[in-house]
């Protein structure tokens, strides 16, 4: 027969063994948390000069890249000229309209910076109750000015 202390030791040993298996098994079974990208980084302290400089530089590079994506005045004028040239009749009052076919033609001619605006999704978003399935050139141009 085993003494009371030996029984307690054996019980503790079994408990530890099963606990570690359960804890380890659960950990290895659900590792999705290791795939979640880190989205928050603390701001560098005042005495971390190198980290502050790195943050400033990366922000400046990001802003430069974003500003290069924006349309400049000449590109906006060219876009307006192309939209006006490819408008689809009849006009609704004073408002010039464009159908999807001409919309795609303008998208091909407008250049790479404008390409992101010439999608079916954007056309559909701006499409209102026009009997000919057209959108307003002015509404589209305003959309580009706001988003670009």
From TrEMBL:
GO biological process: B cell homeostasis; cortical cytoskeleton organization; microtubule cytoskeleton organization; positive regulation of B cell differentiation; regulation of dephosphorylation; T cell homeostasis
Alphabetized UniProt keyword annotations: Cytoplasm
A Gene Ontology term for the protein's cellular component: spindle
Entry's localization field: Cytoplasm
InterPro entries, per the entry: PPP2R3C (IPR039865)
Name of this chain's protein: P2R3C phosphatase
